[in-house]
Amino acid sequence: MRKCSIQALDTVFETIAEAAVLYLPVDGDNGASYKKWEKGTVMSNALNTVRSPKDFFFPQSENLMEFRTSGKTIEVIDKREEKEDFVVFGVRACDVKSFDILDRVFLNEPCDSYYADRREHGTIVSMACTRPVETCFCQTFGIDASNPAGDLSCWKTETDVYFQANTEKGEKLLAAIAGVTEESDDTAVKAQQEKTREIMKKLPLADLTTEGFGAGKTAELFNAPEWKELSQSCLGCGTCTFVCPTCQCYDIKDFKTGKGVIRFRCWDSCMYSDFTKMAHGNPRLSQLERFRQRFMHKLVYYPENNDGVYSCVGCGRCLAKCPISMNIVKVMRTIGGKADE
Amino acid sequence: MNNREETLIPKIGVITDVRIDTPDVKTFRVVTPDGKKAFEHKPGQCAMLSIPGVGEAMFSITSSPTNSEFMEFSIKKCGCVTEWLHEAEPGQQITIRGPYGNPFPVDDKFKGQDLLFVAGGIGLAPLRSVINYCRHYRENYGKIDIVYGSRSKDDLVDYQEILNEWMTDDNIFVHLTIDREQEGWDGHVGFVPNYVKELGFDTNKTVIICGPPIMIKFTLEGLCSLGFEKTQIYTTMELRMKCGVGKCGRCNIGSKYVCKDGPVFRCDQLEELPNEY
Ligand SMILES: Cc1cc2nc3c(=O)[nH]c(=O)nc-3n(C[C@H](O)[C@H](O)[C@H](O)COP(=O)(O)OP(=O)(O)OC[C@H]3O[C@@H](n4cnc5c(N)ncnc54)[C@H](O)[C@@H]3O)c2cc1C
Ligand code: SF4
Ligand code: SF4
Ligand code: FES
Fold first, then answer.
1. Given CB atoms, is A248 within the 8 Å cutoff of chain B?
2. What is the pLDDT, as a whole number, of residue A339?
3. Which of A8, A107, B38, A302 lies closest to A328, judged by CA?
């Protein structure tokens, strides 16, 4: 483990930014968001960013290819250029885990090259949480907020910042900042972790479990009468899917530029009424079916296909942003709690 | 991460022939610009066709893999892409990517079996690939029955091929039906599910069904009342698709993605999925 003083952090950023584009959370009028580091940029102390960092690997909208047509002929043009290396600094434990969940979709055969390119060029520097709040429930999914994964893990105390490399990429980055950091023991980190874990235990959602969900639960949960009431007020606005770090549904569309056609993909939402609409009808006719799909996917279907891993990291974004205050916690408490009755 | 394929970037295809099948179905022949097949496939697999600026849509490859020269798609006019294709003339380029999905088990489970194909309307498209594959390797399969129906005589897809090739084959029995009486039609009249029951097949067959959801539902009920088991019956499903590779989330039912775990399902496997199709 290595450390530097809080004052030296700017030099760390400067050193990282010499070799790669550096992004970190910065405070703004509407909360924190990831911004490109420039000299003088101040890192946010907010617990987390409003939007998740999934944009770095799976952007809200991205061009896939272009077409040029003339008469009856078509030309396909792959306009991608060699990607730059980049570093995302200050990612929280929940969001770091979300990359693993996205990897299982996009890197699974056949591998999505757009996502894979970004993943290869990106290095994740995580930051341990010290003040988790009442919407946090990462521990429900076995995530330790005080011990985040990532290529390089960081802990910030009142006076110092500690670094621990977990991967080859992390080692490389740690070597690059070796001049600004020094060897250190982990006493301060251990003490901080102890304190954070104490706070975690007292959070209102600390008792939330995944019991009643997981692989093999489709038959039991699909027709639960509770879906009706849970979904009743859902507006189908898709906010929950857009802020969610693990939601990964997308649409592919064409855009006519005047000179040619750009085919792009963009985030989509299973909460939208036309998501499954077809010529001969729609298998998910009402919001009940669409609402159920989002949660069944996260809590049953995804784990069934992915060694029991859930497609939620307990980041709490949907709890904070849903206009009608519906969320995955209410679903878990209502539907999952059933098993005990 | 080495095994990287450009799954979303299509190849160029050229339409070399357009055949008018019915008032709303045309069959398109497609090859690459240098006159070859775009890729190899197995019966039941699909391909994404697109016209830049119009959109992309999934279609069954209706030609048999044993056709070494070209691929064919029977396409029903029902929206942006399909309407555009119906206006297209030979020489027109389109884009094509695939093959997608799991095929029918023609080389294992179907081998040595008597086969019963049941199709309605455009539902013949995926089955035609299987039928012609089985006709090509005729010695590998037992008796073949085909029950095919549509609204009217004019709505039967591949009618000429059925008359001139399938009906003239030995040991292939084609049973055609149309929904309502029509001048110039002396064949059977009535809905496919009822016709299947009337024909009363013995139950030692493997059945392959494709058609409108309602036809599949009633045919299944009919077959079960004749004593067929769901494990003997295969079908192919249609859900909205965008990526074709199990990532965009469109075609997800339960823990399955129809584009990659289907579109071919055995009916007992289908029954394990939530009823959302
Ligand atoms: C595995 C598979 C195999 C298939 N095989 C065949 C085949 O062999 N032959 C064949 O003809 N078809 C086949 N299909 C169906 C074919 O993919 C669809 O008919 C095709 O998507 C239609 O594309 P389109 O652009 O013409 O229609 P679209 O323009 O997408 O419209 C289709 C219909 O959907 C509705 N719709 C779509 N989007 C919207 C929207 N945003 N708002 C409102 N309504 C909307 C409309 O009601 C319209 O009637 C197959 C489908 C699958 C999944
Ligand atoms: S659950 Fe809430 S955020 Fe999600 S679609 Fe419904 S109303 Fe919108
Ligand atoms: S479902 Fe809600 S709490 Fe779970 S990862 Fe998505 S936004 Fe975060
Ligand atoms: S079409 Fe994208 S997941 Fe099946």
1. yes
2. 43
3. A302
* Cβ atoms B117, B90 nearer than 8 A: no
Which residue has the least CA distance to atom 2 on ligand 3? A318
Question: Which chain A residue has its CA at the smallest distance from B277's CA?
Answer: A283
The beta-carbon neighbor of B5 closest among A110, A293, A302 is: A110
Domain range B114-236, CATH architecture? 3-Layer(aba) Sandwich (3.40)
d(CA B180, CA A212): 52
For residue range A96-154, what is the model confidence (pLDDT) as tens digits?
999 999 999 999 989 999 999 999 999 999 999 999 999 999 999 999 999 999 999 99
Q: How far apart are CA A127 and CA A88, in angstroms?
A: 11
Q: Which of A69-78, A195-204, A269-278, B92-101 has the lowest mean pLDDT?
A: A269-278
A43 touches A127 (CB < 8 A): no
Token reading at B247:
């990532």
Q: What angle do CA B171, B173, B177 make, to 5 degrees?
A: 175
Radius of gyration of chain B (CA): 18
Residue A89 is which amino acid?
F
Domain with residues B3-100, CATH architecture: Beta Barrel (2.40)
What six digits make up the tokens of A337?
């709690």
Cross-chain residue pair B276–A277, CB shorter than 8 Å: no
In chain B, CATH 2.40.30.10 sits at: 3-100
Q: Check pLDDT > 70 for residue A337.
A: no
Nearest Cα residue to atom 17 of ligand 1: B58
Report the C-alpha dihedral over residues A281, A283, A287, A291, rounded to 10 degrees: -150
Q: Residue A251: which of A263, A238, A235, A239 has the closest Cα?
A: A263
Question: Alpha-carbon distance A36 to A41, whole Å?
Answer: 9
**DSSP class of residue A323?**
T
Distance CA A290, CA B239 (A): 15
Distance (Å, rounded) from C-alpha A141 to C-alpha A275? 28
Contact status of A270 with chain B (Cβ, < 8 Å): yes
Question: Which segments of chain B belong to CATH 3.40.50.80?
Answer: 114-236
Reduced to 3 states (helix: H, G, I; strand: E, B; else coil), residue B27 is: strand
Angle between helical axes of A9-19 and A168-176 (0-180°, round to 10): 120
Q: Give the ipTM.
A: 0.90
Torsion of Cα atoms, B119 then B123 then B124 then B126, to 10°: -120
End-to-end CA distance of chain A: 48
Best mutation target, B238, B252, B273, to test chain A (most A CBs within 10 A): B252
* Residue of chain A with shortest Cα separation from B8: A64
